[in-house]
Write a structure and sequence with these properties.
- This protein has an eight-stranded parallel barrel, surrounded by six helices.
- By secondary structure, the chain is an alpha/beta fold.
- Helices cover 48% and strands 17% of the residues.
- The chain contains ten helices and eight strands.
- The chain is globular and about 45 Å long.
- Helix 3 runs parallel beside helix 4.
- Bound molecules: cytidine-5'-monophosphate (C5P).
- The site of cytidine-5'-monophosphate has 18 residues, from strand 8 and helix 9.
Length: 227
């Protein structure tokens, strides 16, 4: 069954523990730079100590040896999965894999951010990309060939990514919204059910849960849609 991963993009330990106490658990949580830069490794270890499965999403994109050691450090901390940018290139991705193997964590590659429109991505890479799908599937192929554990993609690309990966790889999908949820800065979105049908394994949801009037009710509603 697919996992619902709660993105904890909150400004520190107190709001996070309050939210998690409301929701109960243990559950899958995603710690990104918003929280890590406040709570650091101590908070990550506290979350793991409370039984939560931690996905550390810092999207590393650096020279290979730095990425290898960053991934290794995260694994030593006890996180279950980390992210690197596939645009960091083959040598960097191989180094990430080595770091993951040394420390027993999993590593997945971010393809194209869910906040990017084709125009924005084209402007960033310096050439027109009227269709992002070929770029996402190309980067997915690189991640697969290097032996990463999976990729992160938008809800609109899950089916094509699953075709490239075959079975046995994780597909992490942010940009999940129901019709009633606010879009925020996300551009490539879909509802949870569609993502599950197409082969998504980890659905990442943040603001529609932690900004809801009742976060526990919102969390349960998303879980129900996933099941
Ligand atoms: O609040 P929201 O549901 O939009 O949160 C989505 C989460 O997924 C954020 O933590 C964001 O950093 C992350 N993410 C993303 N797009 C990617 C990779 C990760 O939105 N391509």
């Amino acid at each position: 069954m697919a996992e619902l991963v709660l993105a904890l993009d909150l400004p520190g330990r107190d709001p996070v523990l309050h939210l998690l106490d409301q929701i109960g658990g243990p559950i899958w949580v995603k710690v990104g730079p918003v929280l890590f830069n406040r709570g650091g490794p101590d908070l990550v270890q506290e979350l793991i100590g409370r039984g939560h499965t931690v996905f550390l999403d810092c999207k590393w994109h650096d020279i290979p040896s730095t990425v290898e050691r960053a991934v290794e450090s995260a694994g030593v901390l006890g996180v279950s999965m980390v992210t690197v940018h596939t645009l960091g290139g083959k040598a960097m991705l191989e180094a990430a894999k080595t770091g993951a193997e040394k420390s027993g964590t999993k590593v997945v590659g971010v393809t194209v951010l869910t906040s990017h429109t084709p125009e924005q991505f084209g402007a960033a890479v310096g050439h027109a990309t009227p269709d992002l799908l070929p770029e996402v599937t190309r980067l997915t192929g690189v991640a697969r060939d290097v032996g990463l554990d999976g990729v992160v993609c938008s809800p609109l690309e899950v089916s094509a990514v699953r075709n490239v990966l075959g079975s046995g790889f994780a597909i992490i999908v942010p940009g999940i919204r129901r019709a009633k949820d606010q879009q925020g800065d996300q551009h490539r979105l879909a509802e949870p059910g569609v993502v599950i049908e197409q082969g998504g394994t980890h659905l990442v949801v943040g603001r529609p849960i932690y900004n809801a009037t009742s976060p526990p009710d919102a969390y349960r509603a998303f879980r129900k849609e996933i099941q």
